[in-house]
Design a protein that fits this description.
Helices cover 60% and strands 13% of the residues. It has helices at 5-20, 24-40, 42-49, 55-66, 72-83, 90-105, 120-134, 165-179; strands spanning 107-114, 137-144, 152-156, 159-162. It has a four-stranded mixed β-sheet. Helix 7 (120-134) links the parallel strand 1 (107-114) and strand 2. The radius of gyration is 21 Å and the shape is elongated.
């Protein structure tokens, strides 16, 4: 999911406030927590995104439900999203904020897809190699993808390194097609 320009503006605005108050990580955790609550509860999602209800009718119940569980900054921000009818953009806003928070903290999130669970020793090798190469803190997010026959697909930001068997076979097939003169047909 890419961050759209509008979501990016909201993420940057909230990040600026959080950075000025030295609460970047706390606000990130709260945003991710709220997003998880909404994803786990379809009624809340429908209530917040309902075009039938006026945004002002949603603010009081939202504020009461969040009091004591979230900081005032996050409550105000979410109320603003509801008022501006932008609550549907929350997943993209959180993604944008997470990206800014990661950059601020000097860390990179790496996605590794494998056919079977990634062994701890291999995860540590990924961590060590990437930490050394990128000179950043690395957060490896391992995902099991049963459609992979073997190997791994690694994503670092927008760059994907396909080391899966399927990817290797596809590259091999294209190489054979090129060498046989079929490069425009395959």
């Amino acid at each position: 999911m890419s961050v759209n320009p509008v979501a990016r503006v909201y993420a940057e605005a909230l990040f600026g406030i959080a950075r000025d108050r030295s609460r970047v990580e706390e606000i990130l955790q709260e945003l991710e927590g709220f997003l998880e609550i909404v994803r786990d509860n379809r009624e809340i999602e429908l209530f917040l995104s309902s075009p039938v209800l006026d945004p002002s009718e949603k603010i009081t119940p939202l504020t009461k439900a969040m009091e004591g569980r979230f900081t005032e900054s996050v409550i105000d921000f979410l109320c603003l999203l509801v008022q501006k009818r932008r609550i549907e953009d929350l997943p993209r806003i959180v993604e944008g904020y997470r990206s800014l928070a990661d950059e601020h903290a000097g860390r990179s999130r790496i996605s590794v897809r494998t056919a079977t669970p990634l062994p701890d020793s291999l995860r540590k090798e990924f961590d060590d190699a990437l930490r050394s190469a990128l000179e950043r803190t690395i957060l490896v997010e391992a995902e099991i993808d049963p459609t992979l026959t073997g190997g791994a697909v690694v994503s670092i930001g927008d760059t994907v390194y396909d080391g899966s068997i399927r990817g290797r076979l596809n590259r091999f097939r294209k190489q054979i097609m090129r060498s046989a003169g079929y490069e425009n047909k395959g």
